[in-house]
Design goal:
alpha+beta, five-stranded antiparallel sheet
Length: about 625
């Protein structure tokens, strides 16, 4: 058991002894008659022996205590069942305290298993010692005459709640104690002279169990801890533990068998409940929505829960034995983060809520929050580690969107001010140029004025984009045939001289319905994306593919080119205002942002897939119902 839990148990020693003692006192009428000091003393001795077992893996103290307890309780007239049930009460108390101490430790279940095993060992050892006491006394009585043997044997048998019986060589019942009456329901008068098969289930009789048992005991002299089923008078099936020995006369002749039946039914039910609780805790771990992964010292995967299945897409069978590095992108950023994790583990033994990018089975990167801690055995030896991983990808996207929106709000206010301040003087300059052109005859001056007018027109376009950016126009909905609207946009694009050197292909689905939509704004989006596609193409070999479809109550529009592509580091920025990769004077950096805003206002999405030197695809999804 981990030192942490052993220390915790020691710290809660008095609480454990108090709770355990209280439960023992309520176990049976026999325990209620004992002095409290006696019970506390024995509970304390048992607890100390268990601690020695957990710390030093030594059973010496435990055996010495149980042997002494068996003798004392036997002489007090206690049966083994009463005491073993008292043990189970102690097990329940320690498990409860251990549960309070675990604080999310993933190895709680292994510690529970060690507690359960130690109490199972206590029950087995105590049962053996208790039976040894009974058999030891019985053998002493058997050395005398049969009558004297029966007299002494009766006094022993009546002092236990276990079923004690004597059968002859024909398996006819010759002795039946009160414990047997309580367990099986037959009185002494009802059972004496009957065959032992009266309490054996039919299926076991058919298999020849009684014959096999008698032959085995006759040959070996005894049988211990034989677990089987027996029937009560009202035909209830019990699980019993049988110890049997050969009875011999003074000449050594076999005259029958003595048997002790210990009823395990209640004990097994308690153990079943404990195992059920352990399984319940295991199921909590296995069904956690977070990935919980156990690793050895070489970071090989030892356990993999269903949460890991869902997050990473790998099945448990294919991940066991694999290196944890299969989930780690081997880039510079993650290499640095891996060093931080290892450093924290060596220093503190754990790292909590550390953000790192991991791969899923599709090769997609996930934003995750990692909590990892070392697993230690006794003596603080590290045997591996446990990783709890939470997928925070959607949270990161939301966080990014919120930051993006805040930034846009500030830029929008600035853009509105610039548009207002620049627009008015620009209108005056444009008017003056037109007047001068009409009044001046010098061709050179007129040419220069034309150049000035071209530049003012360029500024005017920028101002219009700024106005659109800061104060989007009213959205007027009307019945719109998306396919027809895109066809018109493609025709408009064909007027661009660059379009003469590329091939534009369309593939419109007839399933796309006529819907109420701001046609002018959607047309603006399509034209912006088509112009961007033209800008990315090489002369003479360019291709643009435009397609529509309907799926899941959404209209899908795809605009794909085979152009130069967008570098990966820029893809997250292309929808930001004023961001452009074009040369100065060839783009305002507002086209894609305006397109993004229009689609977003329709509760739709616009995304981009791109590969360098292979092309770019913009995908638009617009829901039919808003």
């Amino acid at each position: 058991m981990e030192t942490l839990y052993i220390k915790g148990l020691k710290k809660e020693r008095e609480l454990i002894i108090d709770l355990w003692s209280d439960r023992v006192i309520s176990t049976s009428s026999n325990y209620k008659t004992l002095p409290v000091e006696n019970i506390r003393k024995r509970v304390s001795e048992h607890f100390n022996a268990l601690l020695d077992l957990y710390e030093n893996n030594s059973e010496t103290k435990l055996k010495r205590f149980l042997r002494s307890l068996a003798k004392e309780r036997y002489r007090m007239g206690f049966d083994a069942k009463e005491t073993t049930i008292a043990f189970l009460n102690g097990q329940s108390v320690i498990l409860t305290v251990l549960d309070d101490l675990r604080d999310g430790n993933p190895h709680f279940c292994s510690n529970c298993r060690e507690i359960t095993d130690s109490f199972n060992k206590s029950q087995m050892l105590y049962s053996d010692f208790h039976k040894q006491v009974i058999l030891s006394d019985t053998k002493t009585y058997f050395k005398q005459e049969i009558k004297k043997l029966e007299k002494h044997f009766t006094s022993v048998a009546e002092g236990t709640s276990d079923a004690v019986m004597v059968v002859d060589t024909e398996l006819m019942i010759r002795y039946w104690n009160k414990g047997a009456e309580e367990i099986y329901g037959y009185t002494e008068n009802e059972i004496l002279g009957k065959h032992l098969s009266i309490i054996v289930p039919d299926d076991l009789l058919f298999k020849g169990e009684l014959k096999n048992l008698s032959e085995f005991v006759s040959k070996k002299g005894q049988i211990k801890n034989y677990q089987t089923s027996r029937l009560t008078k009202d035909k209830k099936t019990l699980t019993v533990d049988i110890t049997a020995s050969v009875l011999r006369d003074d000449d050594g002749k076999n005259i029958g068998f003595s048997t002790v039946h210990h009823n395990l039914t209640e004990q097994l039910n308690l153990e079943k409940n404990i195992r059920s609780r352990e399984q319940f805790l295991t199921n909590i771990v296995d069904n956690s929505v977070d990935a919980i992964i156990g690793l050895d010292l070489e970071d090989k995967i030892l356990s993999w829960n269903k949460g890991a299945d869902l997050i990473f897409g790998y099945k448990r069978e294919e991940m066991l034995g694999q290196s944890f590095n299969i989930l780690l992108p081997q880039d510079k950023e993650n290499q640095e983060k891996t060093k931080i994790i290892q450093k924290a583990l060596k220093k503190d033994g754990f790292i909590k809520n550390f953000e790192i990018k991991l791969y899923n089975s599709k090769g997609e990167r996930l934003y995750t929050s990692l909590t990892r801690s070392y697993i230690r055995e006794k003596g603080r030896k590290i045997t591996g580690s446990a990783a709890v991983i939470r997928d925070i990808t959607e949270y990161k996207k939301l966080e990014s969107q919120i930051g993006h929106s805040e930034k846009l709000a500030v830029i929008g206010q600035l853009a509105a001010g610039i548009a207002h301040e620049v627009g008015n003087p620009l209108t005056s300059i444009s008017s003056l140029i037109q007047i001068l052109v009409r009044t001046i005859e010098d061709e050179k001056i007129i040419h220069d004025l034309d150049l000035i007018k071209n530049q003012t027109d360029r500024i005017t376009k920028l101002i219009r984009d700024l106005v659109t950016f800061s104060q989007p126009s009213d959205t007027t909905y009307k019945s719109t045939d998306i396919n027809t609207m895109i066809s018109k946009a493609v025709k408009i694009l064909n007027y661009d001289k660059r379009a003469k050197r590329c091939k534009i292909t369309t593939d419109f689905s007839s399933d796309v319905p006529v819907v109420d939509m701001p046609e002018d704004q959607i047309s603006q989006v399509i034209i912006n994306l088509l112009l961007n596609a033209l800008d990315s193409l090489d002369n003479g070999s360019g291709k643009i593919y435009v397609a529509t479809s309907l799926a899941h109550d959404k209209i899908h529009i795809s605009i794909k080119d085979n152009g130069c592509g967008i570098p990966e580091q820029l893809r997250e920025k292309i929808f930001e205002p004023f961001f452009t990769t074009k040369e100065v004077g060839k783009g305002t950096g507002l086209g894609l942002w305006i397109s993004y805003s229009i689609i977003n206002n329709l509760n739709g999405t616009i995304t981009v897939d791109s590969e360098m030197n292979a092309g770019t695809e913009f995908k638009i999804e617009i829901p039919l119902l808003r």
